[in-house]
């Protein structure tokens, strides 16, 4: 618990600073590094689970996506971008399939294809939304981060203290309905305080309170879904954490799991 607080005080101010900078380059570098490490952690987890995915091909695909994102402009007509992305996905799928055909074990080949493609979708495709969200605006980005962090911390503390009814005991025995509800309530209360406190009102870039509450609740549920999805993968692989990079706090993927689902959901809400 103390470790969580220490990491929050060290990392959150850095991320806030990078988001607020006029030039998002440093923010993009941080996200790129996080997703790349997450991709390696995913490969390591799968290997421990008995599935050797195409790590090199996945990394090359990630690099190609980054090149495409570097040329992407929100205000431009992006037909060419979509065409290149579609072509890249086809090339990737063909490469994975071809390399799988040389394996004489059919079951192993299928698992390699499925988990390799899923890893790309899970970390690279969904994770790329973390680049796009910054283009909406720095305060919108901080709003997303604040809601997910507050919910995650609130659900953890409430669940640890009052958790009785498990959501999915097989996948994640520590996640409780009390934690889910408590985390949402705490997120709603804190965001309301942010909205009406002079020095933090800019972190809630929406005016209608019912609109704010709707977004907060949806983001909390999406964050919980992201957390459970990674827990499912870890249970399949028989590991407790994605890695021990952050010592007792697990790996980078353990810190990104909620955002990998919540961020694309937030992007959809932002354009509605």
What would the keywords be for this entry?
two-stranded antiparallel ribbon, single chain, mainly alpha, 3% strand, 75% helix, 272 residues, globular
Report on this structure:
- The chain is mainly alpha-helical.
- The protein has one domain (2-50, 126-271).
- It has helices at residues 2-20, 25-48, 55-70, 79-101, 106-125, 129-136, 138-162, 177-196, 209-237, 252-271, and strands at 166-168, 172-176.
- Strands 1-2 form a two-stranded antiparallel ribbon.
- A hairpin with a 3-residue loop joins strand 1 (166-168) and strand 2 (172-176).
- Helix 2 (25-48) packs antiparallel against helix 5 (106-125) and helix 4 runs antiparallel to helix 5 (106-125).
- It is globular, with a radius of gyration of 19 Å.
- The model has no long low-confidence stretch (mean pLDDT 86).
Q: Give the proportion of residues in helices.
A: over 70%
Give average pLDDT, whole number: 86
Proportion of beta-strand residues: under 5%
Q: Please report the distance between the alpha carbons of the first and last residues.
A: 38 Å
Number of strands: 2
The total domain count is 1
pLDDT < 50 stretches? none
What structural class is derived from the secondary structure elements? mainly alpha
Order the strands across the largest sheet as they lie in space.
1-2
Give helix and strand order, one letter per element, not per position: HHHHHHHEEHHH
């Amino acid at each position: 618990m103390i470790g969580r607080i220490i990491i929050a005080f060290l990392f959150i101010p850095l991320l806030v600073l990078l988001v607020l900078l006029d030039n998002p380059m440093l923010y993009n570098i941080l996200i790129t590094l996080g997703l790349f490490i997450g991709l390696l952690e995913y490969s390591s987890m799968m290997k421990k689970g008995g599935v050797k995915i195409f790590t090199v091909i996945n990394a090359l695909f990630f690099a190609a996506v980054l090149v495409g994102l570097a040329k992407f402009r929100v205000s431009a007509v992006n037909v060419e971008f979509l065409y290149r992305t579609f072509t890249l996905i086809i090339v990737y799928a063909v490469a994975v399939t071809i390399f799988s055909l040389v394996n004489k074990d059919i079951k192993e080949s299928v698992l390699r294809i499925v988990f390799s493609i899923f890893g790309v979708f899970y970390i690279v495709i969904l994770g790329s939304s973390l680049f796009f969200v910054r283009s909406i605006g720095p305060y919108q980005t901080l709003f997303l981060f604040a809601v997910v962090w507050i919910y995650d911390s609130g659900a953890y503390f409430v669940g640890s203290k009052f958790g009785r009814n498990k959501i999915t005991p097989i996948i994640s025995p520590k996640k409780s309905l009390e934690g889910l509800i408590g985390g949402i309530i705490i997120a709603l209360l804190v965001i309301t305080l942010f909205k009406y406190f002079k020095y933090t009102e800019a972190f809630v870039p929406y005016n209608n309170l019912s609109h704010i509450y709707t977004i907060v609740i949806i983001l909390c549920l999406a964050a919980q879904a992201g957390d459970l999805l990674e827990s499912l993968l870890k249970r399949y692989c028989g590991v407790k954490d994605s890695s021990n990079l952050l010592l007792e706090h697990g790996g980078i993927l353990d810190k990104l799991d909620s955002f990998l689902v919540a961020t694309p959901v937030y992007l959809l809400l932002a354009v509605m």
